[in-house]
Structures are given as structure tokens and as C-alpha cells.
Amino acid sequence: MTTTLRTPRLTLRRWREDDIEPMAAINADPEVMRWIGDGSVQDRKQTAAGIAAWEREWEERGIGLFAAELRQGRQLIGFVGLSVPRYLPEILPAVEIGWRLGRAHWGRGLATEGARAALDFALSGRGLARVVSVHAIGNDASERVMRKLGMRQERETRHPSLGVPLRVHVLEPSP
């Protein structure tokens, strides 16, 4: 299944082999990874395994994390998309919207732009009635994106294995 979404500034598409290096560079930035899991950076091998897992989710579920590419210049800047938040069993079954962009692309509205397109895909293209988004408390930039998307805070909890305090937001459009 090939799924591509376009926004004014982004192309959201499936992953390719040549995405591993630029995504590995993003995952190697401690500031980018500060709020992800335990804050550890990821190397090329971990990034390649992640991309392979994201592609499997596309094949198995028809949803996944899109490679986010600038339309102008076709540069990979990170990901935006959908996944099942298996790391947080208390909110399952659920589909989570998330994003990770290289630091050079922060503060320009690109995460919000991409996430709006992915949300539309989730709600209209995949018929989901509910989408969640989870962030580590303190990651104010991600929380601002969630609010811009019209999501509301549903609960606060902790990551079951890391103990990190988390905030869960939800979007449940009216039928």
C-alpha cells in the first residue's frame, strides 16, 4: 500500500532505504531525543530497526509513521504519523499521533501542519473515532501542537517501565 499526503510545505510518504542516514542524524541529536523514552540517542542500526518496524506497522495495520519531507528540496526532516502506543497499555486500544523533527525545523509550524494531515488521514481515511497523543510532562512544544490540533487533556500518568510523568491528550470528533 502506498500512501502519500501533501501539505503546502510537506510530503508525508512511506520510508525508503535512503532515509536511514538523515533519520539517524535526527535520532543522534540529544536535544531532539530529550523527551523521547529515557532520552537516549539512537544510532544508525537502531534507526534502521525503527524504520523497519514502522514499515511493518503500515503493512499489518494500514497506518504508520510517515517520513516527513520538505516539498521544496525534498529533504527528510523527520516523521509525522500514527502508531499504536503499546508502551502505555492503560490507554489501549488506541492509535497515537506523534512527530519527531530535526531541530533545524522546529518552531516553524511544520509539526502542526504534518500532524493535521495525518489526523485527517486517521479520521477520514481510516475511519478512526478517537486519536490520542502522549508527551512527557515538560515537553511544552509538543503539548502546544496537541492543543493547536484541537486535542484535550485526558489524563496524567507515568511511563510503566521508565517512571517518566506523561500527559495523554485525545481528539474525539463529534459523529
Give helix and strand order, one letter per element, not per position.
Answer: EEHHHEEEHEHEE
Low-confidence stretches: none
Shape: globular
**Mean pLDDT rating:** 95
Say how many strands there are. 8
End-to-end distance: 28 Å
Rg over C-alpha atoms, rounded to the nearest angstrom: 15 Å
Structural class: alpha+beta
Describe the protein in words.
This protein is α+β, with helices and mostly antiparallel strands and 175 residues long. The protein has helices spanning 20-27, 30-33, 44-61, 110-125, 140-148, and strands spanning 5-6, 10-13, 65-70, 76-83, 96-101, 131-136, 152-158, 165-171. The two termini are 28 Å apart.
Provide the descriptors you would attach to this structure in a database record.
single chain, 175 residues, alpha+beta, 5-stranded antiparallel sheet, 3-stranded antiparallel sheet, globular
Structure, briefly:
This is GNAT family N-acetyltransferase. This protein is an alpha+beta fold and 175 residues long.
How is the secondary structure organized here?
Blueprint: E1 5-6, E2 10-13, H1 20-27, H2 30-33, H3 44-61, E3 65-70, E4 76-83, E5 96-101, H4 110-125, E6 131-136, H5 140-148, E7 152-158, E8 165-171
Antiparallel strand pairs: 1-2, 2-3, 3-4, 4-5, 6-8, 7-8
Helix pairs in contact: 1-3
